[in-house]
Every structure is written in C-alpha cells, then in structure tokens.
Amino acid sequence: MFKVHRITFSGICAAVLFFCFLQVKAQGKTGIAFLPSSWENTLKTARQEKKAVFLYVSAPGCRYCRQMEKEIFPTEEVARFYNATFVSYKINFEDQAEGEALAKKYGITGFPTYVYLDKDGELLHQSGGGKSAADFIADAQNAFDPDKALFSLKRRYDTGERSAAFLFHYSNALAQFHQTDSPEETVVAQYLATQTPAQLASEENLHFIFSRYLGFRSSATQYFLRHQGQFLPLFKEEVKHKAQRIITQTAQMAGTENDLVLLQEVQQAVASNFRDAERLNALAMIYFYAGRKDWRRYAQETLAYSKTLAGDDWRTLYETGMYLNAFAKDKEAMEIGTQLMKRAVALHRNPENLYLYARLQHKAGREAKATKAAKEALDLAKSTGEDTSDISAFLTELKSGS
Questions:
Q1: Do residues 287 and 312 both lie within one domain?
Q2: Does residue 351 have a cis bond before it (omega within 30 degrees)?
Q3: Which of 144, 169, 193 delimits the end of a domain?
Q4: DSSP H or E segment with residue 395
Q5: Same domain for 104 and 133?
Q6: 52-58 and 86-92 strand pairing
Q7: DSSP class of 62
Q8: Exposed end of the chain (fewer CB within 10 Å): N or C?
C-alpha cells in the first residue's frame, strides 16, 4: 500500500518562500551577469536575444571601479534590471589588448566608464563615475530616453538644435562623458548664454553650474568665481573648498605648461574674487612651482606660507613633504621639508605626519631623529588601531643601516 503524504497550505507557502529566498540570495551573489566570452560574441548574443548591450570599462587602481564592483553591481535590484535588459560585458583597460582597442574605439579616457548600445551595436548612451544603485539603474534607463541618451542628444546637436531645454539636457549628459574631445565646455557656455541674470541665479542653475568641473576660462567656472556668495546658501563650506581647488589646480597647470599668462589670470581672479587674496596667492605660487617641478622653490614658497599665512593648514605642509620625499634631490629642499613636517606634526600629531617626518629626516642623514620619530609614529598607530606595516618596515630598514 502506498503511503499518502499530506501537504498543507502552510507547508507549500514555506517551500515557496524558501525557494524565493534561495533565488534572491543567488541573484544577489551573482550580480550583473557579465559574459566571459569576447566582445564579438557579446554583440552576437545581443542580436540573438534582441537585447541592448552594457559595456563596463575599468582600470587598475580605480577607486570608483572597486566601489561599484563591490557595493553596487551585486545588489539585487541592479542585477535584476541589468540582467533582464542587457547582455553585459566588462573589460580591464590595461589587462587586455581587447580592452585597449575598445577603449580607443569608443574614445574612453576615464574610469569607470559605462557604455550602452542597442542590439545592433549602435551607441545609445555613455557615462561614468561612482553612483548609487538607484542612479546606476536610472543611468541605464536614460539610454532609452531620447531626451537623456547622450548619442541621441549628440545627433540632434549636430543637426543644429539649440533650444535652452535641449542644451541643458545635453550638458548634463556630457558631464560624465569621458572623452578628450568632449564638447561639454562649449555646450555649457551656449546654455548659460540663453539665461538672463535672474535665471542664472535660480536654484536649478546654481546646482547646474556648481556641478561643473570645467577649465578655468570656461563661462561656468568664471561665473562661479565671481558669484560665490550666491552659492553659499546651497553649498555652505563646499563653496570655499571648490573655489580654492580651482585656483590651486589651475596654478599647477600653469606651472606644468610654463604658462605665465594663465598664472597672471589666476592672480587677477584671486585679487577680484577673494577676501583672503594674500593667502590664496601664496597657495597659487606653491602649486605653480609644484607644476614646474622646481622643488627648491616649491619648498621655499611652502616654508614662507607656513610662517606667515598657513595658520593650522597642516595638510598643505604634508602634501609638500610628500612631493619632496618622492621627487626632490636638492639638499636645501630636503632640509626645508624636515622643517615643514616638524611644524605639521606640531599642528596635527598623527601617525602619517610623524612617519613622513621620519622619512625626511632619514633622507637628510639624521638617523637618530628619524628613528625617534618613526617609533613615535608606530606607537601612535598601534594605539589608534591603524596599519603599522609600513612604519615597521621602515624601522627595520633604519636598524639595518640601509
């Protein structure tokens, strides 16, 4: 006689829930299902399955690539949407000849880059950078929206469309378009030219301008520098940090290119738009000589800054110390480096500052002072639970006399 097993409704529900749990867990673990085959096979699969294509381009040492791969790609909502919508493929720019060829084909110069294509391999959209799961899904959805998809907008721009709304959308799409010949600066200038002074001061446009990282001479950058007060209610301390970064990075570029005209423009912008012009001009000169790799003058400018204008700006002193430790061969520059790091340690006593001070003392030939500072750095790092491997290796090096 056969034994009849009685299956209850609650038992069925439990089984179904357990199965769903296993499915979700497996999907979350798998993440985006990147094909292991070649790019040609990816395009062939997309045509067969009538799906769009997602191409992910990364590079070694890319912080946002690691973040996306670890925190975003494996999430359930991202995996579900991308696996249902795309045939996906990933390349490492430096590890594969194929990666270099594809990056060249699509003009990719920044990482991570996300390229979206239709089932026939025609470009739809391209963007990049670190994103939340929701923004990453929205980015993919933009590929199918003619008002947001980069290459749809580009075709409209190339045929002469120039309405304010269109230029606004195209500028936003170009903001994450990693190509050296990107027309973003031109399109942003064209959009801003459509706006009245009152419109430029609107919250939407202030966000639009603040989010741009364009050249020093761009209309967006110049508007931001001239009207920093308008941005303060929205962005608080970030305004000061961005303004200073624009000045220092442009001054460094002027040094690298030995462009004295650009340096003069930076100094004029500082004089016209900043209350602490003396301090900011001093910083500009530090970065100018860093760009020129004139390490002695770089050290001298930072020392003068530390004595008169730095206040508690130990980070600039630390940055100079790092550059001097890495590149300077000049004895005077190295000597100034030890003075800078002594002051940095006095301003902010942490393991990093003490360790860099020890390394500079070692390069200056003061082994006893180097050993003392390195031991202090080691003890402090241990007390705060920080990694001590580099400091320990350095102390071993000092002990061996190498």
A1: no
A2: no
A3: 144
A4: helix 389-400
A5: yes
A6: parallel
A7: -
A8: N
In the chain, the largest separation of any two C-alpha atoms, in whole Å, equals 100
CA-derived radius of gyration, the chain: 27
For the stretch 137-183, pLDDT in tens is 999 999 999 999 999 999 999 999 999 999 999 999 999 887 778 89
Q: Domain containing 343: what range?
A: 308-402
Same domain, residue pair 45 and 119: yes
Tokens of 49: 């399955």
State CA 51 to chain mean position distance.
Answer: 31
pTM of the model: 0.80
Q: What is the pLDDT of residue 352?
A: 96
Amino acid type, 119:
K
**Are 396 and 325 found together in one domain?**
yes
Final residue belonging to a domain, choices 144, 163, 189: 144
The confidence score (pLDDT) of residue 275 equals: 94
CATH code: domain of residue 339? 1.25.40
- CA-wise closest residue to 346 among 307, 387, 391, 390: 307
pLDDT of amino acid 60 = 87
Which portions of the chain are predicted below pLDDT 50? 1-29
Which helix (H) or strand (E) element contains residue 115? strand 113-117
pLDDT at residue number 224:
98
**∠ at Cα 143 (159, 141), nearest 5°?**
145
Sign of the CA dihedral with 336 first, then 338, 341, and 345 last: negative
Pick from 125, 121, 105: which is nearest to 40 by CA?
A: 121
Angstrom distance (rounded) from CA 281 to CA 397: 40
| The pLDDT of residue 214 | 94
Q: What is the DSSP string of 220-256?
A: HHHHHHHTHHHHHHHHTHHHHHHHHHHHHHHHHHHHH
Model pLDDT for residues 375-393, shown as the tens digit of each residue: 999 999 999 999 999 999 9
* C-alpha dist (Å) from residue 324 to 259, 361, 386: 23, 12, 24
